[in-house]
Design goal:
Keywords: Signal. The protein is mainly beta and 115 residues long. The protein has one helix and seven strands, in the order βαββββββ. Strand 5 and strand 6 form a beta hairpin.
Length: 115
């Protein structure tokens, strides 16, 4: 099994969509986020947790939707401020804190874990 020296990082980028504004995002309780894997390895798990909690919830990916390199999957998330943990196919992981989920329509996963 390969080991990736630089774990994962979640780069949250706003993607223009018709009618999307920060105010509209705040009115909605849930939103679909497009997660694009721009790395050369598969992402096995993505966990989210409220930013004021110290335990992880369930994996938000289904077993049949693990994003391989270049693939995009859609997940529905609750709006709010969250911490995100990504786990690569070699079990390496990266945590990104204080992400406001409904401010973006797409997450790009890159091979660099910024601390």
């Amino acid at each position: 099994m390969k080991h990736y020296p630089l774990l994962l990082s979640l780069f949250v980028a706003l993607v223009g969509i018709t009618g999307f504004t920060p105010e509209a995002a705040q009115r909605s309780d849930r939103k679909t986020i497009h997660i694009k894997n721009t790395t050369n390895f598969t992402v096995d798990q993505i966990f989210i947790s409220p930013d004021d909690e110290d335990h992880w919830g369930d994996d938000i990916l289904d077993d049949d939707e693990l994003p391989k390199p270049g693939e995009t999957v859609d997940v529905e998330v609750d709006c709010g401020k969250w911490d995100v943990k990504l786990v690569a196919e070699d079990a390496s992981e990266c945590k990104v804190e204080d992400i406001t989920l409904c401010q973006a329509s797409q997450w790009n996963i890159v091979a660099n874990c910024h601390k």
